[in-house]
Amino acid sequence: MSEADLKHDPMDHAEDTARQDAPESDSLDEDNRLKPEFVRSVKEALDEEDTDRVYDLVEGLHPADIADLFELVDERERLTLASSIRDLMGVEVIAELNDWVREALVEALPADVVAEIAEQLDTDDAVAMLEDLDEKDQQAVLAEMEPEDRAAIESALSYPEESAGRLMSRDFVAVHESMTVGDLIDFLREHRELPTEFWEVFIVDPMHRPIGTCSLSWILRTPRNIPLYDVMARDQTLIPADMDQEEVALRFQKYALISAAVVDPSGRLIGQITVDDIVHIIQEEAGEDALLLSGAGDGDINEPILLTVRARLTWLVVNLATAMLAASVVGLFQGAIAKFALLAVLMPIVSGMGGNAGTQTLAVAVRAIATNQLTDSNTVRMILREFRIALANGFALGLLIGVGTWLIFDNPLLGAVIASAMVINNLVAGLMGILVPLTLDKFNVDPAVSSAVFVTTATDTMGFFSFLGLAVVVGLA
């Protein structure tokens, strides 16, 4: 007996092959982007409301390029473009659309049309299309869907966002361990409603729990009479449905996986994740961490302006507050600065270099945490490592700035003060750059989101305080 999730139309395979074999459109330039001349032609046709010309221009494009075209035209032109190309707006285009663009288009379409599109998509793509809709719109679309498709999507939506349950596809091939290789080959040939693309077959026990896998290359090269139980690979990586997608991506990277089974809490096979999904996740997570460190929000040029302003302004206000804190430290030494004006000239160097050093350490620490390189087992070693690096950099920079200050301003004492302050602030930067993300991670706060604020606050305040304080102590002012 065998089991398989049956979702794809087998005729789609011929269409996919035809698209892959088709020559690339001449509207693409060398790095596979749509040429500006072509985009201008489409925009002109849209402005003139010449729908036939728009259709003729777009007809030869690959679905992924059509999706790119929606990002390149103005927001007000997107609905017109969608209505102009009609039947070219297939599920392949919808699946490739930018999240913000797709959400705007989906919200503008009737619920029955969205439901029809969702039914043709893989479950993971359908979920991505519906998950950002308002609850009312989401329920309206689900009400228009076939019961089987609706149940699959509602099941996926029940899992946390950015989890394996949301990411997984329910299109997979699973057979019982009692089959032979010949039985499996006959099964794959006879069932036309199998997924169009898969690389391995999951072997399950009577409880539908995965016990092994067989790659297609093994199946084709093994005699027909051999039981699957004897040739299957028992060593497999199982993905819990509630696992965060970032952890899923790390497992694919660590174990060089092409696909992996997703299981529910009872260990039953409920889906699979393939490497093509992981490529998108790795790209998303890497970009997300970089943008969070800068406080730039999602960083998507298609994100509504109001949301972008709100995301960026929040962190700019926080930075303004920390800048005021640093300024208050300077205010404590305004008398010393008035007596010795060179202090005002040199103090930004100390705080600025400390901020740069802290950012370097912070970037390394956040990446190490995200990739599981930094764990409880090597935390102390990592802290000591960054301490030594900070100490070495501090002495090197201190020596350079100290000698330079001495030569330029002919004041060896001032050179010694700024050199000492540079060492102190680099040590603070190194320790804060590693301790802040570690502490936030312990409290289950994403260290990429708010670490930079704490680190720059520490380096600014300590930079000013150490330099101006030492100057007062040694009697420069």
UniProtKB/TrEMBL annotation:
Record's subcellular location: Cell membrane; Membrane
Function: Acts as a magnesium transporter.
Ranges of compositional bias, category Basic and acidic residues: 1-22
Protein's organism: Novosphingobium guangzhouense
Region (Disordered): 1-36
PROSITE patterns named among the record's database cross-references: CBS
Record's GO cellular component terms: plasma membrane
This protein's UniProt keywords: CBS domain, Cell membrane, Magnesium, Membrane, Metal-binding, Transmembrane, Transmembrane helix, Transport
UniProt name for this protein: Magnesium transporter MgtE
Membrane topology (UniProt): Multi-pass membrane protein
